[in-house]
Design brief:
The protein has helices spanning 2-11, 16-23, 27-34, 42-51. The chain is an all-alpha fold. The model has no long low-confidence stretch (mean pLDDT 89).
Amino acid sequence: MNAKLLAAYQRSDKTAYQIAQATGISNSTLSRWAQGRQSLGLDLAERIAQAIGYKLELRKTNRRWA
């Protein structure tokens, strides 16, 4: 999920400041996430997705977690 959301975030025409304002997530949190130094919970990931025009969806797969 993080990789796909990050790719969409990077392709977005919105600035980090605009996304921070729209989501209530601090610029520093967005920066740490974009640099791979912090992961996001589902609630923050969903806010970012909505801010850049996407809808976050969860799907059940047969993949097993290690």
